[in-house]
Automatic annotation (TrEMBL):
SUPFAM superfamilies: Fibrinogen C-terminal domain-like. This is Fibrinogen C-terminal domain-containing protein. Residues 1-49 form the Fibrinogen C-terminal domain. It comes from Ameca splendens. It comes from the Eukaryota.
Length: 176
């Protein structure tokens, strides 16, 4: 019999490692091998995906990068529903690159995720949903005030833009 969460393994005295988690006890959802990151203060349930390395995205008409997680959607939703907090993050390192918008304002890149499955999101790093902006625009500290994201400034310096932490993990796609 397997525990229903990483927190339950921590209470049994276990440390960080891979454990089978049975999120619904003896219900219909199968147990899944998941990494539990156990610290003194917090316990993290870490769901692995297929793309943990930096991936160079070449300019093209449409280029996408898919992130598929090691558990199915039913298991993800069950884990999320019993979790106090969930997050997912994507980092995009850029220079002389267009991230949110074409010069006419049309969304050039997006990520697909929650809330809800399959939702196209066009905001980045702390900006408001649907804004087609990055956090630097809200904070009024973008390197070029004419652009809503440092990636769009056409500078040779490298910038790192993050997707917002989201409550829904699901299948995620970055398209540039």
């Amino acid at each position: 019999i397997y525990e229903q969460s990483c927190e339950a393994y921590k209470h049994r005295g276990n440390t960080s490692g891979y454990y089978y988690i049975d999120v619904d006890g003896s219900g219909p959802i199968n147990p899944q091998l998941i990494f539990c990151n156990v610290t003194e203060d917090k316990t993290w349930t870490v769901i692995q995906h297929n793309n943990t390395e930096l991936t160079k995205i070449q300019p093209s008409i449409e280029r996408s990068q898919h992130f598929e997680y090691t558990v199915n959607e039913e298991q993800l939703l069950a884990i999320i529903s019993q979790s106090e907090y969930c997050e997912q993050e994507l980092a995009y390192h850029c220079r002389k690159s267009r991230l949110p918008n074409t010069p006419d304002g049309t969304p050039l890149s997006w990520w697909v995720g929650g809330p809800g499955a399959g939702q196209r999101q066009t905001y980045w790093g702390g900006a408001l949903p649907g804004s087609q902006q990055c956090a630097c625009s809200l904070q009024e500290n973008c390197v070029d005030h004419k652009h809503h994201c440092n990636c769009d400034a056409d500078h040779t310096a490298w910038y790192c833009i993050h997707s917002p932490a989201t409550k829904y993990y699901g299948l995620m796609t970055l398209a540039c």
